[in-house]
Amino acid sequence: MASVSLEGLTKSYGNGVLKAVNDLNLEIEDGEFVVLVGPSGCGKSTALRMIAGLEEISDGGVWIGDQFVNDVHPKDRDVAMVFQNYALYPHMTVFDNIAFALQIAGMPRDEIRRRVEDAARTLELTDYLKRRPGQLSGGQRQRVAMGRAIVRQPAVFLMDEPLSNLDAKLRVQMRAEISKLQRRLGVTTIYVTHDQVEAMTMGDRVALLRDGNLQQVAPPSVMYDEPANMFVAAFLGSPSMNLLWGELGEVSASGTTLKLGGQTLLLTTEKIAGLRRLGAYANRAVVVGIRPEDIYPAADRPGATSKIRSNIDLVEALGSDKVLHFSIDARQALVKSSDSLDELNHGEAGKAHCVARLNARTPLRMGDDVDLVFDTDRLHFFDGETGEAIR
Amino acid sequence: MVTDRRLDSRSLAAHRRTRKLRRNLRGIGLHAILIVLLIAMLYPVIWMVLSSLRPEDEIFGGLGLIPKSWTIENYVKGWQLSGNPTFAAFFINSFIISALAVVGNLISCSMAGYAFARLHFPFKWLWFALMLGTIMLPIHAQMIPQYIFFLKIGWVNTILPLVVPKFLATDAFYIFLMVQFMRSLPAELEQAAVLDGASYWQRYWRIILPLTMPALVTTAVFTFIHTYNDFLGQLIYLTDVKSMTVPVALRLFLDPSGGQSSVGGLFAMVVLSIAPVLGFFLASQRLLTKGIATQGFK
Amino acid sequence: MSEVETSVARPKPVRVRPPPNTSRSSLSRMENRAAYWFLLPWLAGFFFITVVPMLASAYLSFTDYRVLKPPQWVGLQNYVAMTHDRRLFVSVGVTLRYVLISVPLVLIFSLAVAALLNRGLKGLAIYRSLFYVPSLIGASVGIGMLWREVFGARGIFNSFLALFGIKGAGWMSSPGTALYTVIGLNVWTFGAAMVIFLAALRQIPESYYEAASLDGANALQKFRRITLPLLTPVIFFNLVLNTIGAFQSFTQAFVVSGGTGGPVDSTLLYTIYLYQRAFQHLEMGYASAMAWVLLATIAAFTALLFWSSRFWVFYGD
Ligand SMILES: Nc1ncnc2c1ncn2[C@@H]1O[C@H](COP(=O)(O)OP(=O)(O)O)[C@@H](O)[C@H]1O
Ligand SMILES: [Mg+2]
Q1: What is the DSSP letter of C273?
Q2: Cα dihedral sign, B36-B38-B44-B49
Q3: What is the CA radius of gyration of chain C?
Q4: Where do the domains of chain A lie?
Q5: Domain range holding B63?
Q6: Same domain, B68 and B172
Q7: Chain B interface, mutation test: which of C141, C151, C173, most B Cβ atoms within 10 Å?
Q8: Is the pTM value of this prediction over 0.90?
Q9: Count of domains in chain B?
């Protein structure tokens, strides 16, 4: 078992025109479960494959334990990988698939048998050892792929979207199983996914990539509550965070005002106190973020001072909650998964589309007029130009 | 005028019948054309098979297929045409050459195919283009110096000139076949094997080759048929009666004067000579279609 | 042991970053080496079975070489001699007739039968195999020997004609018809081309025909306006393949004529004449020159076909 360090890890294609991974720095501790997440095409697989040694490293370095492995052959890096399509050897039985690495290493037969049977028991594959991958269900194939990784007892697990070929139910189940297994074995794991739910639920820490650039590394709850920038804020959470242009008033001892289009919210001193740099934005435009679950009907919050009046465009009843779509008189701030933040400035004035997640029993219907309350203690502020969080 | 628009089930059924009949008639017409054509094409072969089982003097009695009396005398006569060696020796020679050619092509062409399909190396595109170029190359320009060379090193009247080149992947078409097939296998399979510690040889031998089975079977079948049927090479290199193969030996039935020594014996040996080809083809058809390679992926 | 296990954090190892791109060279050099090992048999064959003999035969074509004595440089003499060689001209004429008649016939038969088979018939697989049988055995000596009997004076072909009251001659022994029996044997093996056509036909989406039906096209129009244009790449493929093959055709004419190319040189294909000069007369220099002329002719025909394909082969999207 070992730590993994990435220093300035870079992969360029086309003579540096495209940087699939750009200057990635990441320290992963021994036994840690780190999820590498980001929209598809952001360079997650490329980064993982550089760690495995399947992809040449354009610049920077990879350390596994104390060993500098840029020059080390993949097989000598002591890593095991689970591929998105599992890459099971179709012509071999499940037993041989799991045993292959051990056979190659020339391990004695008894030892191989013992290890494979152990792994199979762990993964509940004992009854399927004689079958071929073609005769297994999707979930069973996934388990075989896991078995192939754990039987080697490697220093590091690398997993590239291992659950994305499964149907939704199975994915939830395997998610939990992989987490449990990793905790039990304590093997350092780097897990790539584009699914934010996997990122939030599985990792000790989450690293979010965008166009090859690392955006933030943090434990899931920290990343959710304190996103480093608008991109992170918008990527995590479903439905995603509402982002609106607003204008801060003069910051005084009693607090400050925040104008969202025609409406004005009052921010208390306690809230501002936590955000030291907010003072610099007095009388300036900022991007305000609020998560759907931090919006309430005014009826539920009798004490609230600043209400926002709106008309309901659509109600989606999900059973567990109700998702409310409404428009408010403000300018929307948009984040696109591309390099420039130019789109930020092009929100249509006067009509911003917002989403709130409410209690399922809220008796609201499409077309109703409604007063809503934004929980001002849970607002997020971002610099309109750089997209960075203001704290 | 008011027409009754209720469906008349009896006239509908009649309508359905005529349509079905017309479709069937068209089908029957097509089948008839194809069957007549097939009979015309295969008649001589069928006639030969049955003629080989009738007495010599009955053979040219007309178009009839069924012999008046059955005999295997032609097979006995044909088999011992040249006294010693008999056709047993010729068949053994043919089979040895064909079998070795199959082994040679399978090994050498799959190795080259693996390099072209899945490894990176300098000037790959150039080598590949040269390889493709040799597929269409007529052998006549190489044939003469090859013959002189093999003559000088004493390989004439041995099987070596016919077999050794197969171990050097000179049938480039099969390389191309393997490349096409191996390219279609997912890259992750080999990457998984790399992480499992497999060497290049193990990747080729234990992962890629088993999955290339359909292309290997195709190569084996066609190499066998082509080598077994090949005439020019065997005509040049195998002149001694003892080293002769079946195709070369069949010409012994030709009288120098231009006639035939024994048509019955000839037919019997021709039947025996084409039987392995047809057998190999029939036996491999099931294998050819089995295609195990697609099983592990969805 | 216990001394070492202090609670002090282990100092971070010193990380020396090596110069960039060392990984590229060492790993890919390994792969290069492996690749050339795998290519070794082919490379050896390519050089020693193909390239060197080709160069040698190019050299021999400028020499007088009769195996027993070393080759003597004679410059262009072999090539000049070819322009006076009457039998050579005969063989060129026979070969051209053979190629220009049999190749189109093979294509027409194979396409026609493939089109018939593609009409949703039952038993397609069986038909396909049966039509393919002649291609499996057609190149063999045995079938050549059979052909002699079938088209001999007392053969079953004449028995068949007798049913209609026609009295046939010895098709093999008359110079006027001998070549056509050999051509017939080549056409007989149209199954290989048919299999390729059939595979291509089954790739054409049914929806094209459905759309054409709605546009009011009849079966013939559909074949001419949809099937043929979409098949041109495969027609071209079969045309090139069969042309190159026909130029090199040897066995059947050789066997049917008993190795002579007769009667009266009427089946004397170029390859048979080449064989006679090389391996019966042992004129290796002259035969090498002939081989290079054959090579050049095939190359020229292939180039011509490729050039013409620009005008009639339709490559979709
Ligand atoms: N061989 C290649 N050549 C050029 N670009 C590539 C290559 N492989 C990947 N890329 C690009 O690198 C980027 C990152 O790819 P990848 O790591 O596969 O993304 P993902 O995060 O979805 O796993 C993508 O934009 C992709 O187009
Ligand atoms: Mg990916």
Answers
A1: H
A2: negative
A3: 30
A4: 4-235, 242-383
A5: 2-73
A6: no
A7: C141
A8: no
A9: 2
Most distant CA atoms of chain A, gap in Å: 77
**How crowded is residue B252: how many other Cβ atoms within 10 Å of its Cβ?**
16
Ligand closest in space to the Cα of B187: 1
Question: Ligand 1 centroid to B56 CA: how many Å?
Answer: 75
Q: Where does A242-383 sit in CATH, by number? A: 2.40.50.140
In a domain, B23, yes or no: yes
Find the DSSP H helices in chain A. 44-52, 94-104, 109-122, 138-150, 168-185, 196-202, 220-225, 230-235, 269-274
C-alpha A275: how far from chain center:
25
From the CA of A44, the nearest ligand is 1
Same domain, B155 and B207: yes
Closest by CA position to C248, among listed C134, C133, C89, C139: C139
CATH number, residue B118:
1.10.3720.10
Q: Is the residue at B285 inside a domain?
A: yes
Q: Assess whether the C-beta atom of A202 lies below 6 angstroms from ligand 1.
A: no
Are B272 and B254 found together in one domain? yes
In chain A, what residues touch C28 (CB-CB under 8 Å)? 56
Complex prediction ipTM: 0.86
**Pick among 3.10.20.30, 3.90.1010.10, 3.40.50.300, 1.10.472.10: CATH of A4-235:** 3.40.50.300
**Residue of C88, C89, C134 whose CA lies nearest to C110:** C134
Query: Same CATH fold, A242-383 and A4-235?
Result: no
Residue B298 in domain: no
Q: Which amino acid is at A67?
A: Q
Task: For residue A89, give Cα distances in angstroms to A122, A134, B188, B213, B292.
Answer: 21, 10, 10, 14, 11
CA angle C111, C112, C117 (to 5 degrees): 95
Distance CA C43, CA C49 (A): 10
Q: Which of C276, C104, C85, C95 is nearest to C179 (CA)?
A: C95
Query: In angstroms, what is the span from residue A15 Cα to ligand 1's centroid?
Result: 14
Contacts 24+ apart (CB under 8 A), A215-222: A215/A38, A217/A26
B210: tokens are 């088993």
Q: Which of B58, B73, B88 is the last residue of a domain?
A: B73
Here the tokens at position A216 are 């933030």
A123-160 pLDDT, tens digit each: 999 999 999 999 999 999 999 999 999 999 999 999 99
Q: Whose CA is nearest to atom 5 of ligand 1?
A: A13
Per-residue pLDDT of chain C (317 residues; tens, 9 = 90+): 343 333 344 445 555 555 554 445 577 888 899 999 999 999 999 999 999 999 999 999 999 998 888 899 998 999 999 999 999 999 999 999 999 999 999 999 999 999 998 887 888 888 988 999 999 999 899 999 999 888 888 888 888 888 888 887 888 888 889 999 999 999 999 999 999 999 889 888 888 888 888 888 888 888 888 889 999 999 999 999 999 999 999 999 999 988 888 788 999 999 999 999 999 999 999 999 999 999 999 999 999 999 999 998 887 65
Among the candidates B19, B50, B73, a domain finishes at B73
**C 128-157 residues with CB < 8 A to B:** 129-131, 133-134, 136-137, 139-143, 145-150, 154-156
Beta bridge partners of A356: A324
Q: Are residues B136 and B9 in the same domain?
A: no
The residue of chain A with its CA nearest to that of B293 is A90
A40 C-beta closer than 6 A to ligand 1: yes
Q: How far apart are CA B140 and CA C272, in angstroms?
A: 11
Task: Tell me the CATH number for domain C87-283.
Answer: 1.10.3720.10
Give me the residue spans of the domains in chain C.
Answer: 87-283
